[in-house]
Amino acid sequence: MSTVVVGELLFGFRNGSRYEANRRDLEEFIENAYVTLLPVTFITSDRFGRISSALRRKGRPIPTNDIWIAAHAMESGAELLSFDRHFEEVDGIAWTQL
């Protein structure tokens, strides 16, 4: 699981009415033996720069955190599952719209 996604979830929890319960559930999920929390690396940062630049050249910007999420998914070889259609603007990503 991407640390960037965890940050977005925690942000959402802090703006909701169930912060403590949601945080406990997230921590329990992350502690599962089948879940690995992936750190942001230099490679992630490089991919972020490449994606951001390509989107700017195409005139198709997307939210900055979503660029980080896309970069992290690409680095880890993960398929990105999202409701957000703007990920279709990111070239080379394995993305499935939910």
Kindly provide the radius of gyration, computed on alpha-carbon positions and rounded to a whole number of angstroms. 14 Å
Number of strands: 2
- Tally the helices: what do you get? 4
Amount of beta strand: 5-15%
Number of domains: 2
CATH superfamily of the largest domain: 5'-nuclease
Topology pattern, helix = H, strand = E = HHHHEE
Give an overview in words.
- With 98 residues, the protein is mainly alpha-helical.
- The chain folds into two domains: 1-37; 39-98, Rossmann fold, CATH 3.40.50.
- The protein is 55% helix and 6% strand.
- The chain contains four helices and two strands, in the order H-H-H-H-E-E.
- It has helices at 3-14, 19-30, 42-58, 64-76, and strands spanning 80-82, 95-97.
- Strands 1-2 form a two-stranded parallel ribbon.
Structure at a glance:
The chain is mainly alpha-helical. It has helices spanning 3-14, 19-30, 42-58, 64-76; strands at 80-82, 95-97.
Keywords:
mainly alpha; Rossmann fold; 98 residues; 55% helix; globular; 2 domains
Helices and strands, with pairings:
Elements: H1 3-14, H2 19-30, H3 42-58, H4 64-76, E1 80-82, E2 95-97
Parallel strand pairs: 1-2
Helix pairs in contact: 1-2, 3-4
